[in-house]
Design a protein that fits this description.
The longest helix is centred in the middle third of the chain and has 37 residues. The protein is of the alpha/beta class. The protein is built from 22 helices and 18 strands. It starts with 10 loop residues before the first helix and ends in an 11-residue tail after the last strand.
């Protein structure tokens, strides 16, 4: 059984002589020799593999990306070393196929169309990025000469031409090509990997090797989506390894059947698992091939969205790598365990060795570390979250993260109402009506009412008065001197009550600007811990439930310190988990306690402090005219119905709940099944 091909060309099955050649290669691969016969390359080249992507009009087979991947998988299923050794040729050919018409393209397309194989190397021992290339293309002698050392040279000993990355005399990055037998080129057989041992991946030493100036190309000749193509070829080889493992499992079962008249059920189940894993990996490869073909057509046509389509294809390749790699490794690992399911240990060992079952696992492991999945996962996150198209250095990521946060911020208007004005509003219904009418239909704001010593004003009362008049606005209790707020239990109960009345539209602002003391820290700790002692989700939503609440979730905080408090609070927790806490102080472990910091006339994220990212801007008013002026400057809401739907303050500001430390003495308030559970 063989998997159905991706594309319409079906090169591996329809080309005369290729099925027999692949079978010959597969039989030879069992020897797991460190070298591949040169004839394998020349026969594949003669059958057109190297020119699958070259248009028919230019002497190629005119295959699409799916045709190429299907052919690569078929070769890799026979021998993964052979398929990977073609990687440089495939990448170089793709670069030239996508290049605009011109002498350089014509030169290389002609070479590929007549059967030339391209090898070469890019990676150097101290890294693989353009900033660290030490290979130089110098023209001091009048003739361009390459000098340097390439760490990986996959497929070079089997190639006719070699391409290398280098830096020219002007400091520009270039791609220089020369014949494999050119003077000054030494290909070393020093690859020491425990898998993929026959890919000719040793070191290349370049000692003043002469280069034809016409075979020097700018670095920019690489096509859109090159990073994805570099990885996609390796994924095709991995899928081929999976196909080879599935074929080997079939051979194993065939031998067991012939020896015993049938195979154990567990062996058959193991084969089924291998087949399923490989089918899934192949489907993923087909999808990224489809996206890469779409991008290719856009590049050739010069479409305006070609770059976007190419980036989408690259991202899809990196996503597929995260799934294909573990699937193929699991399939190869499962293959090695199948003989162990036989009763005869000696027979199992003989089958494992005669079929060289370990080679699939070794080759898959080696390929999977070629470009670590971890790097690709980071690249996916960078692109999808921060719009970075590659793994960024720390400074670049910092800028991108800051920009992403800034782009996601819609600053909230905070109206800080003077205590005297607030007291007057709550006592004058007509003024309240005027203010409500002015802010109605406008973008919602947050009203902050401060409790000041000697003001004889209760902010909670003012907020409760305004809640129904401004159903989509948010509110904050502002406190300065914590000593004037009474016991932390009373402050917590007032805040929690407003949270229930408002549906989670409130904040607590501690704005005193003083240094933190142990007593103040204890007060804040007790308030915040009390606010979560009765989880809202513990309340039974079904009126027919036997119990009002799952009381075992209600907890004591058992706080010690300046304000010993057992708890729990007699009010359920907030719809927003915890009320938003805003402080003018920067505590230790600030993210554990504080949502936002007060800095100048803004609320900022804790880590930003004074650096930026204002989530709210503060406007202080002391008279009704000031309130009306702010209301008039607010944008109108187009959808009045949407405005009527209240949103929690935490949701509006897109803030996670602080991760409060659990107090050491915290415990359940009620044991499960107690008499009070139904109260």
């Amino acid at each position: 059984m063989t998997s159905r091909p991706f594309g319409s060309l079906d090169w591996a099955r329809r080309t005369p002589g290729i099925p027999a050649l692949l079978d010959e290669i597969r039989q030879a691969s069992i020897a797991d020799a460190p070298e591949l016969p040169q004839s394998f390359f020349t026969r594949l080249a003669a059958a057109g593999f190297g020119r699958i992507r070259v248009p028919v009009a230019e002497g190629g087979l005119g295959g699409d990306v799916l045709d190429l991947l299907d052919a690569l998988v078929a070769i890799a299923a026979a021998d993964s070393n052979l398929a990977q050794a073609w990687r440089t040729h495939v990448l170089a050919t793709e670069r030239h196929v996508k290049s605009p018409a011109g002498a350089l393209r014509d030169r290389w397309i002609s070479r590929v169309a007549t059967g030339s194989i391209i090898g070469g190397g890019w990676t150097e021992a101290d890294g693989s990025g353009p900033s660290v290339f030490t290979t130089r293309l110098s023209t001091e002698t009048g003739i361009p000469r390459l000098t340097g050392r390439k760490f990986y040279s996959t497929g070079s000993r089997y190639a006719d031409w070699l391409e290398y990355s280098a830096v020219d005399d002007a400091g520009e990055l270039v791609i220089a090509a020369l014949k494999t037998d050119a003077p000054g080129v030494t290909l070393l057989d020093d690859w020491t990997g425990f898998g993929q041992r026959a890919t000719a991946s040793g070191t290349t030493v370049l000692d003043g090797a002469p280069v034809d100036p016409d075979d020097v190309a700018p670095w920019q000749t690489q096509h859109l989506g090159t990073p994805g193509w570099q990885q996609m070829i390796l994924l095709a080889v991995l899928v081929g390894i999976g196909e080879g493992a599935r074929a080997a499992a079939s051979d194993l079962i065939d031998q067991i059947d012939r020896a015993h008249g049938g195979s154990p059920i567990l062996v058959l189940e193991g084969y089924g698992r291998i087949s399923a894993l490989v089918a899934s990996a192949r489907a993923s490869l087909g999808e990224i091939g489809r996206l890469s073909e779409i991008a290719h057509q856009a590049i050739i046509a010069g479409d305006a969205d070609a770059e976007t389509l190419a980036d989408d294809a690259v991202n899809a390749v990196f996503q597929a790598q995260a799934t294909i790699v573990p699937q193929v490794i699991e399939a190869a690992d499962k293959l090695m365990t199948l003989p162990a399911l036989l009763d005869d240990v000696a027979e199992a060992q003989n089958l494992r060795q005669s079929l060289r079952l370990d080679r699939f696992w070794r080759n898959a492991q080696t390929l999977s570390t070629h470009n670590p999945v971890l790097h690709r996962l980071r690249a996916i996150a960078d692109r999808e979250i921060y719009a970075i198209d590659r793994i960024a250095d720390p400074a670049e990521r910092e800028v991108a993260v800051a920009q992403s946060i800034t782009d996601g911020i819609r600053p909230l208007t905070v109206v800080r109402v003077d205590a005297a004005l607030a007291a007057g509003l709550t006592a004058d219904p007509r003024s309240l009506d005027a203010v409500a009418a002015a802010f109605g239909g406008r973008e919602p704001v947050l009203f902050q009412f401060d409790e000041r010593p000697g003001a004889h004003f209760d902010a909670a009362v003012a907020i409760a008065t305004l809640l129904h008049r401004l159903p989509s606005a948010w509110f904050a209790i502002g406190t300065a001197d914590l000593g004037d707020t009474g016991h932390p239990y009373n402050l917590a109960r007032r805040i929690a009550s407003l949270e229930q009345l408002s549906g989670g539209r409130t904040a607590w602002v501690l704005d005193d600007g003083t240094a933190e003391t142990d007593e103040q820290r204890d007060r804040i700790r007790v308030v915040q811990q009390l606010l979560r002692t009765w989880p809202r989700e513990s309340i039974a939503a079904d009126a027919g439930a036997r119990h009002f609440a799952q009381t075992e979730q209600i907890r004591r905080i058992n706080a010690d310190g300046a304000y010993p408090t057992a708890g729990p609070l007699n009010v359920p927790s907030s719809p927003q988990h915890l009320p938003v806490f805003v402080s003018s102080r920067r505590f230790d472990d600030v993210h554990r306690y504080v949502d936002l910091l007060v800095r100048d006339d803004a609320w900022v994220l804790p880590y930003a402090d004074a650096a930026g990212h204002p989530l709210a801007t503060i406007h202080e008013v002391s008279d009704i005219d000031g309130l009306l002026l702010i209301a008039g400057a607010l944008p109108q809401i187009a959808d009045a119905a949407a405005d009527a739907v209240p949103q929690t303050l935490r949701a509006r500001l897109r803030l996670p709940a602080p991760a409060l430390y659990e107090l050491p003495g915290a415990s359940a308030r009620f044991e499960r099944g107690s008499e009070t559970e139904a109260s």
